[in-house]
Write a structure and sequence with these properties.
Elements lengths: L2 E3 L6 H6 L1 H7 L2 E3 L8 H11 L3 E13 L14 H7 L4 E5 L2 E5 L6 E4 L6 E6 L6 H4 L4 E11 L3 H10 L8 E3 L2 E3 L1 H9 L10 E13 L2 E12 L8 H18 L7 E2 L2 H4 L3 H12 L4 E5 L1
Parallel strand pairs: 1-2, 2-13, 3-8
Antiparallel strand pairs: 3-11, 4-5, 4-8, 6-7, 7-8, 9-10, 11-12, 12-14
C-alpha cells in the first residue's frame, strides 16, 4: 500500500476535493497528522463518540520554552512566520452549529497545569483544520482551538500587531521597501532561539455534553518535554511521531483505504489504540479524566 502523510491542516475542503484523484491513483492521503492538527482531532472525535450529545469541544495546545525569558517568554520551536501568521488571521470556529470566525488572540482565559508549567493563558487561533468539516453538526455550542502561552503573551503580540509590526505590506524606509513583519522576525529570531533547557508541549482537550441524561466532561491531556538524549524538541516528538506511525501503518497495509481521510476518520477503534500505544512506547502519554 502506498500513500502520503503530512502535517498541514489548512484548506481541508480543498483536500476533500482531491479525494477522487487519490482514489484513482489507489493511494491514501492523511493530511494534518501531527499533534494539532492530528492527535487533537482524534481526541475530539473520541470525546464526542463517548457522549450522547456533545455541547462543547475545545482544544488547548501550545509549545512553550521550559525557561521563561522576557519579554515574550517565548522561544521558537517552529518558524516565527507561522507564529505571527496564526496571531493575525481570523480564527475559524463552530458556534451554535454554524461556522463563524473570531478575532485572533481573543477569548482569553487561564488554565492551570502541573509544575513546572503552572498557569498558562489560552486565546483563539485558527487551528480547527479538518474538524471544521468532519465535526460540523456534531457539537451544539462551540468547537474551537486555543493556543497556550505563558500569561501576558497575547497582550504583547496584540501590541505589536496594533502598532503595525505584523503587517506584510511593504513600507518605504529611506530608499528601501521593508515589510514590517519581516523586519520584526529578523530582529527577534536571534533573541528567541530555543535554549538548552528545551521546550514543553502542553495540550488539553475538553469535550463536554450529556451521557445517559447526565452532564459529562471528558478531559484529555498530553504533556511532553524536550529529550536531552536525542535532542528532539517536544514539538518535534509530538508532531513527528504520529505522522511516522501513520506512515508505518500505511506501508504495512494496516490502513487499506484509498482517497483522502483525516486523522479523526482513520484512527478509530483498534487503529486508535495502536497509534496511542506506539506513542506510549516513545514516552508520549495521553491521560484521560471524566468529570
Amino acid at each position: 500500500m502506498s500513500g502520503s502523510v503530512d502535517l498541514v491542516g489548512s484548506a481541508p475542503e480543498r483536500r476533500v476535493e482531491l479525494a477522487p484523484v487519490a482514489e484513482a491513483a489507489g493511494i491514501v492521503v492523511i493530511p494534518g497528522c501531527g499533534v494539532a492538527p492530528g492527535l487533537s482531532n482524534v481526541l475530539v472525535a473520541r470525546g464526542i463518540d463517548w457522549l450522547d450529545e456533545a455541547h462543547e469541544a475545545v482544544i488547548y495546545v501550545g509549545g512553550i520554552p521550559k525557561e521563561r525569558t522576557p519579554r515574550l517568554e517565548y522561544q521558537t520551536v517552529y518558524a516565527l512566520e507561522s507564529v505571527f501568521a496564526a496571531c493575525g488571521r481570523p480564527a475559524r470556529i463552530l458556534s451554535a452549529g454554524a461556522e463563524t470566525s473570531v478575532e485572533p488572540l481573543s477569548g482569553l482565559e487561564r488554565l492551570d497545569f502541573v509544575e513546572p508549567i503552572g498557569t498558562l493563558e489560552a486565546f483563539y487561533t485558527d487551528g480547527l483544520a479538518s474538524l471544521a468539516v468532519t465535526m460540523k453538526g456534531r457539537v451544539t455550542r462551540l468547537l474551537a482551538e486555543k493556543t497556550l502561552r505563558y500569561p501576558g503573551f497575547a497582550d504583547r503580540i496584540r501590541f505589536l500587531r496594533d502598532c503595525g509590526l505584523l503587517g506584510d505590506r511593504a513600507v518605504t524606509v529611506g530608499a528601501t521597501q521593508v515589510k514590517p513583519v519581516e523586519l520584526l522576525i529578523r530582529q527577534l529570531t536571534p533573541k528567541l532561539t530555543l535554549g538548552p533547557e528545551g521546550d514543553i508541549l502542553a495540550m488539553r482537550v475538553t469535550v463536554a455534553g450529556v451521557k445517559d441524561g447526565e452532564p459529562r466532561t471528558h478531559q484529555f491531556e498530553l504533556i511532553d518535554y524536550f529529550d536531552p538524549q536525542t535532542k528532539y524538541t517536544a514539538m518535534a516528538r509530538t508532531t513527528g511521531f504520529p505522522a511516522a506511525q501513520a506512515a508505518r501503518m500505511i506501508a504495512d497495509g494496516r490502513i487499506p483505504e484509498t482517497g483522502v481521510h483525516f486523522p479523526e476518520q482513520v484512527f478509530i477503534g483498534e487503529r486508535e489504540d495502536e497509534l496511542f500505544g506506539a506513542l506510549q512506547d516513545r514516552g508520549i502519554t495521553v491521560t484521560h479524566a471524566l468529570e
